[in-house]
Amino acid sequence: MSEEVLNSLRKIAEKIYEDIEKGEIPSISLPSRTKKNIVFDPYSCVWKYGDSKIVRSAKKLSGAYMLLRTMYVIDFIKEMLEKNKSSTLREMYYISEGWGLAKFHSQDESNKLAEDLEIITKMLREDFHLRPEEDGASIIGNITIEETTRKGDKRRINCRDDVGDAGYSIPYYVEKDKLRFVDCDADFVIAIETGGMFDRLVENGFDEKARAILVHLKGQPARSTRRLLKRLNEELGLPVVVFTDGDPWSFRIFASIAYGAIKTAHISEYLATPTAEFIGITPSDIVNYDLPTDKLTDRDIAALKAELEDPRFQTEFWRNEINLMLEIKKKAEQQALAKYGLDYVTDVYLPEKLTQMGILS
After folding, report:
1. Structural domain span for residue 48
2. pLDDT for the residue numbered 58
């Protein structure tokens, strides 16, 4: 893989060099990353970039600086790959302090350049050995994985019997050369937004009772978490259900898992799981289970109205639920189910919802 990555990056550098050698203004072309150029593909059910392109050239000083930074970043990635090192995106930003005129002025600037290289090469920043700052999420369930350690050794871990209460921590890179599924004795995956609810399901032994793999999303899930959910779904044929709070921001967490996010439109097909289903908390749950609630804020209401126009929510289910939330003007947390006791979520709520979905019989 390293040689393939290096070849892709080398082509960018060669293009700029050839432009200079021909006496032309050096430039690179890539898809426009404006919101207008991000379209929802109804066939693959994910966000993608459209056909609009932009050209970054040295015609203007700002463009020249960007191409200079691009060359420095390519050289930095080359050095990491050759030495088998890695860097966080934050570290790359600070390392640029030594690049003279090519230094970044903000973390956002360096992050976007890393994304540009992903788009141009059709590789991932993880392939560049660039790591995110956030920790990986956790898994608990009867699945055995084989992980390649830092020293290149293979170790097998059962994510139920060989881990503590916190579960197995998902690494930032989860491809087959790093993480291989050895054996799995589970019927579905439940992705859980909050740490409190993940802990509740673990403590109540829901993974064993329901033959489930529990995945803690830690709020908006990291790319590695979304990629692992997709792998579990596609490679093992496990249905994925998403269990979040009942508010517009949690609905978007589900949408990012199922259909992709605008920011990562260039890799949505790689990250998204279009067959994922939403299990709650829904506005209907708030009414039917008489849950404790909070009032919607003006920002919540604006987000819900935007979701009514969002292609990811254009189903009868979502239109009905979003309109109901706007009508009752209430939202609820997952842990509101504790109103009926600590076991209610695993003994009543989830079994009822999963049976309705046909996942439990």
Report:
1. 2-131
2. 87
Residues 17 and 70 in one domain: yes
Provide the domain count of the chain.
2
**pTM value?**
0.83
**Are 245 and 252 in contact, with CB atoms under 8 Å apart?**
no
Taking the C-alpha atoms of residue 44 and residue 311, their distance in angstroms, rounded to an integer, is 13
How far does CA 29 lie from the centroid of its chain? 26
Annotated catalytic, 173?
no
User: Do 50 and 39 touch, CB atoms closer than 8 A?
Assistant: yes
Strands 130-131 and 154-158: unpaired
Residues 103 and 164 in one domain: no
> Which residues of the chain fall short of a pLDDT of 50?
none
Question: Do 179 and 47 share a domain, yes or no?
Answer: no
Please tell me the distance from the alpha carbon of residue 58 to that of residue 298, in angstroms, as a whole number: 44
CATH of the domain at 348: 3.40.1360.10
- CATH code for the domain in which residue 71 is found: 1.10.10.10
Output the DSSP codes for 13-34.
HHHHHHHHHTTPPPEEEEE--S
- Residue 88, classified by CB atoms within 10 Å of its CB into exposed (0-12), middle (13-18) or buried (19+), is middle
Q: Among residues 94, 270, 340, 344, which one is catalytic?
A: 94
Task: Give pLDDT tens digits for 286-297.
Answer: 999 999 999 999
Residues 66 and 197 in one domain: no
Distance separating alpha carbons of residues 156 and 258, to the nearest angstrom = 29
Q: Give the number of other Cβ atoms within 10 Å of residue 25's Cβ.
A: 15
- Any idea what the Cα angle at residue 1 is, between residues 179 and 81, rounded to 5°? 100
At residue 337, the pLDDT reads 94
The Cα 345–Cα 280 span in angstroms is 11
- pLDDT at residue 311, as a whole number: 81
* CA atoms of 266 and 270, how far apart (whole Å): 9
